[in-house]
Design brief:
By secondary structure, the chain is of the alpha+beta class. It has a single domain, classed as Nuclear Transport Factor 2, Chain: A. Helix content is about 35%, strand content about 30%. The protein has a 6-stranded mixed β-sheet.
Length: about 170
């Protein structure tokens, strides 16, 4: 009985959160056509992020990371010791680099949801890649991205660190 109540409580919570976010998620759904009005800044930010994800999430300038500002503040959220990188080059070398060096190519992103409000875009996405040992790498992410002039100036990344650590321990870097 307790398990059943917990399951229904979780479903109710999910429905409540979805209902609360619905006005934000449907940014750009108005009675007028898109041709009549230019996109709002939040619509433009969401479009920039969506297009960057379409490039894959890799280690070079031709992937998602091409929209990072040079002075980006990128934080990887961890319960015990969050880590903040204070520049694009530091993040690419010390944050993304150790992951990418264990993969055969960029992480392909399946963006499940983009939520845009003011200058913040929240991206909820699943990533898939092949590790250098031939095994698949799958992870789920939530990135909170603060935008300025179509660049990410601040990011907080939430991901399954157990999955990431397993990759880092199992596969030697290139």
């Amino acid at each position: 009985m307790t398990l059943e109540l917990t399951r229904w409580g979780t479903r109710a919570m999910t429905i409540a959160i979805a209902a609360a976010l619905a006005p934000v998620i449907t940014v750009g759904s108005s009675g007028t056509s898109a041709a009549d009005e230019p996109p709002t800044p939040q619509q433009r930010n969401a479009e920039v992020v969506r297009n960057a994800f379409a490039l894959g999430v890799g280690h070079d300038a031709h992937t998602f990371y091409s929209i990072l500002a040079e002075d980006v503040q990128w934080t990887v959220a961890r319960a015990d010791a969050p880590r903040t990188y204070t520049s694009r080059s530091q993040f690419l070398q010390e944050g993304a680099g150790p992951i990418q060096s264990r993969l055969t190519g960029p992480i392909q992103a399946n963006v499940r949801q983009l939520i845009a409000e003011n200058d913040v875009v929240v991206a909820i996405w699943d990533g898939a890649a092949t590790a250098r040992d031939g095994r698949p790498y799958f992870n789920s992410y939530a990135w909170v991205l603060t935008m300025r002039d179509e660049r990410v100036v601040r990011a907080t990344a939430f991901l399954d660190l157990v999955v990431l650590n397993e990759l880092l321990e199992r596969v030697e870097p290139a």
